[in-house]
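Morning F.,

Quick status update on the modeling queue. The single chain you submitted on Monday has been processed. Sequence for confirmation:
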Amino acid sequence: MAPALDGLRVLETGVLLAGPFCGQLLADFGAEVIKIEQPGVGDPMRQWGRERAGGHSLWWPVLARNKKSVTLNLREPRGQDIVRRLVASSDIMVENFRPGTLERWGLGYEELSAINPRLILVRVTGFGQTGPYAGRPGYGSVGEAMGGLRYVVGNPDAPPSRVGISIGDTLAATFACVGALCALHARERTGRGQIVDSAIYEAVLGVMESLVPEYAVAGYIRERSGAIIPNVAPSNVYPTADGQMVIIAANQDTVFRRLAEAMGRPELANDERYATHVSRGTHQTELDELISVWSSGLEADELDEILEQNGVPTGHIYRAPEMLSDPHFAAREAIVRLTHPEIGELPMQNVVPKLSETPGRLRWPGPDLGAHNEEVLSGVLGLGAEQMAQLAADGVI
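Structure tokens below.
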């Protein structure tokens, strides 16, 4: 069966991560994503990532998977005209330039919607399209800081830290994708597209739980707490006799009762210090110490077996090697292997989530720069060989 977004055409004009990750999600579920890249240069993500294979980025094949690469100089009038022609047959356009950039190129929503009233324009920026900060450059790290995440990440005796991935960018892109799908549904009723305005700092703020009302109502400022969430206990990393670290999450009352049974200490579940969620949070430190003493007397495999038998959520802290060898990952095809023409076999994370009837799938890794020029510009727009040659000679494509 065709994937869920089969038949949708998406123009991706952004660079780096905040816009392109939205394009990746749409492409994963079958949309035809035409990625517009600067001729001769391409998206900087083609060069990003710590490790390389034969000179090739190992990040780019993931971010640009399932996409078609078309080179186009958006600063050149003929390049802008080609975008307008592509917009006429597109459903969504994704961009993450600074506000006002598209308008300077004559590609603002007013112009584009006049060509195609059904077009949905997805705009991902640091601070959104409006407000006093709209014109500021805004990377993911800034959005993470102003959205509240940076302050609470790390140990309490150290400066604010960061999550080891570009979480601000990907959160904004994920919310942008949600917005695009909402706009598609609304278009079914109205027949009109709209603008999806996703700001990085707001995307981060959107997952910050009760941080704002905790301060506004109760005067509490959430601080850095290391490996725990304050007052949610027990839910931490615990040591084992063979030097491993195991996550045990038993903060719900019924689950804590099962943990107490597993520990051979059923009386703990009735102890007033640990009997309720609130009381366990109040005595979080001493409870963690008590569990650590117990877990450190068992090897990891034995601890896993006891916890599983008693229905207590547990897991190990995985790195890539553990993911690649785990039977559950394999059974659900959480990691799949594509063939890259230069790198060879290339494992990467699969599409999330899984749909039972119209699932997404990975078709190819990130393409070479301009690999789909002829397919799109000739096949879709009908440009002839001479036109293509002239545009290439003039640096338009």
